[in-house]
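## retry 2 of 3
previous attempt timed out at serialization; input unchanged, resubmitting
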Amino acid sequence: MKFTVTDDLTNKIVGHIRLSAWQLRAAEDEPAFISAFIESETTLSQTAHKGYYPNNQYSFDGVDFNEIEHTRPTLSKEPRDLLVTLVKQLLDAGYSLPLHVDFIRNKKQARDLIDQAAGRARMRFVSQGLLIDQEYLIAEQEAKEWIAAGSDVNNVPETLDSWVAASGMTETAAASNITSTSAQFRGAIKSIRRIRLTGKKAVTDASLETFKAIAQTYINQLDAL
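## retry succeeded, writing output
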């Protein structure tokens, strides 16, 4: 049981007192015990009110507790600028955070950001999830082997059979779909690799004044894929 203590002269909240459950259970006369407890914890000019009212959230008008309305301060900076400042402070304090182009400090970080952009680009060409690209490659291999072996509908590999069931295609159509999709995926991977390696080389060769802008150019190319 918690009580908020106010000053009778100023009506200010001056403290809080707490009466534990085990103390109440031990009391033979609960109201009398509470009254004695409050008297022992307060002065003659103070009053204890049942309930917990923090003085940073409530004021007391002599009768009731009233919640204080907090006005949100006006931001002097745009949210993005505030985030940039905060992240820089965290980095200076030694915290390890995901890289962002606004916080690049050296060429290694710029190259790492290009690698991250390439990873995002690769993931856009496959379904979400870990190792999905490996699943695609296995399906491609089995589909090609099945076609090369004569496309026997009585001996369909598991990855092809599952795509037949999921897509409603025939075995032949599903195998063709897998191989064509894989070809597109491989083409995208090659393009991503070319941009990634070219971009990292450009950052390495750039001056300290230009490497950030150059990194951003290649990141934009990868994000546009």
